[in-house]
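[scheduler] slot 2 assigned
[scheduler] job type: sequence-to-structure, two independent chains
[scheduler] chain ordering preserved from manifest
[runner] begin chain α
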Amino acid sequence: MSLAVVASLTAPVVALSATAKPQQAREQTIGKLETVATFYDAMPTGVTVTASGRIFINYPRWGDNVPFTVAELRNGKAVPYPDPTVNRETGGDTTDHFISVQSVVADSQDRLWVLDTAAPGFRPPLAGGAKLVAIDLKTNQIVRTIVFPANVMQPRTYVNDVRFDFRVGRAGVAYVTDSSLSGIGGIIVVDLDTGTAIRRLTGDPSTSADPSFVPVVEGETLMGRNADGTTSAFTVASDGIALSPDGKTLYFCPLSSRHLYSVPTDTLRDPALSDHDVASSVKDLGEKGASDGLEADADGAVYAGDYERDSIRKLVPGGQWRTIAHDPRILWPDTMSIGPDGYLYFTANQLHRQPGFHGGKDMRKRPYTLFRIRINASPAPTR
């Protein structure tokens, strides 16, 4: 051993200054989050930003006190939209009011589409209540209601998210995910001209909960935990959905999975193809992390939340996934929307802290947050 090494081993430890405040290493953050709005009452899920910059959100009726299930943000305050009457929970026909809205999406024709599950508390959907409702953003009046026909509604169907393409058919088409808590999902394709619809990929591995999936969020295995000590696996089917800018590819993922899937949209729409033919056209694009919401931009990039890692990730066409936002405040990134300002908007709603996952104890801490992060991209076109 050299003298230099000996000297280094026997050198005295230098004491830190009494005024020094050493900090331990900690996980780094990625990206610059901006807070758009905070919510101190019910838990929001969906968000959409219109071409003119208006922001809409929704609150499903899962157990919180939800006086209105669709709202517009005005001066930082959530205001029932289009009015309080339409947002009433009960009374009247199931088609003339919002029962429990899971998603809102603004289209390229200055309309807001409302996706009503008609399944408050995840109960079986009320007959005739699950629907798509279009609101004219110029007049703030409902102009179209499409009730999902019985042939696409299963006993535990939970319509979750929707994307539109107005380049096909006479009035366009809507693609809707069924994220049934049974774990068996599917894709519903709606003809916006006739209101007719077909189911695709029902029970396919691409739309169903991955049986080997064991999510870990905030260091804890996520599962249903009842007050009596019984537990159940987290099995939620197809949830996130995004459409490529040319409308030819639909991306989707089960909530209980880390994989991203794609399918050609022409196979989904073709009634002459069998379920086997459609299933054979699905591609498993590999792992992206466990995601709730998905989105795509005009350049073909796909964005996905990663609720296990408090992150937002981006897949460039032909490239690899990379993390564009990672922050301990991103507690369950839910729905995403790209605004006209080049920002990606998303809700962080602490879904995993709900009482059903913690023996009946509500672990959520208000406020919930609507964040945005600059991506310098435009929304994928739909016409």
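[runner] end chain α
[runner] begin chain β
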Amino acid sequence: MSKKILILGASILQIPAICKAKDLGYVVLVADFDPLAKGFEYADKKYVVSTNDLDGILKIAKKEKIDGIMTLASDIPMKTVSYVAEQLNLVSVSTDTAMKTTNKYLMRETLANDNISIPKYFKVDSLTHFLEVIELMDTKYIVKPTDNSGSRGIYLVEDKMDVSELKKIYRDCLTQSRSGELLVEEYMEGPEVSVETLTINNKTTIVAITDKLTTGSPNFVEMGHSQPTQLSENEIKDIKEITVAAVNSVGIDNGPSHTEIILTSSGPKIVEIGARLGGDNITTHLVPLSTGINLVEACIKISLNDYYDIPKEKKQGSAIRYFSSKQGDISAIKNVETALALNGVEQIFFTKTVGEKVDYIKDSTNRIGFVITKAENAKLAIKICEEAMKIISIEIK
């Protein structure tokens, strides 16, 4: 009898895991609060329930007698995954680790206690405290929720501001915080990377290091990724060392991790670490194209306590670039087929269609589409991405 896996989330980000689990012969159950979630059509059975509903998901898990539970590309459901796994004695990180990897303040505290390099930081839970803390910061600092993702509610403050402007930033960030708490932290300058790792029985393997491209100030929305990293061997060595230390610090003993790092003038510092696969098509597309390693398959098998042997890595280049946009209505998208015909273009995808409204890019939900490419190295993969995007015409009125 086939094993049953419950996947939390049914957005386009979770579809690769749903489809891969089906391909591997497992029975796939999916839970999402959105009844129209695109991933439902690929599952064996769907449940319309919030992935944050711990007892609701546990009830489903018990009723279905699942053999494993997981999520992909999202931090928020990790608390539910770990809670259900602990209740049913399934493979996952502990609830303690889930908390440390989904709450940015707890993450900072944990890493700091283990002397792992992180930015200077303060947690604030009131406007008065916020105004007091910023007096202790340098001219440039970041304000963000302790518990959100997708670049939501992140602000860079670059200059001295009057109290009315600071109050607006505080309130805007607060709308994106579930806990009502914010972080004020040092602004770090330098190249940004993410590191994809796989830990099996406390042994951590670095699978890929990804170079990042963001919008920069003020919201730092990710607009591109490429693999393998083009940093120097010494920089790569330092990044690998701090990543493994961070994985051990937060207690990831089985499963993936996605660690974001900035290489500052004083060495690499941890931005965030998540006990899950990376989003933004990093894990689902870029890693297999550049390394030949299917991390989605690995995580499915680990969650079901099935054996997974990491294959020998192949070394190629892969890249993704997201389309930027202005405010308005999409009136036409042209020349997609011509761009798809370029050698090395793997996928072109739009999240918005003709007739839909689009906005300036303030967080990852505002991005309207992307191009994914592969080549013999990262530099060439990026070049092909850029060529494809020049060919495509997106008309916005």
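[runner] end chain β
[qc] chain β: The chain has a mean pLDDT of 94.
[scheduler] slot 2 released
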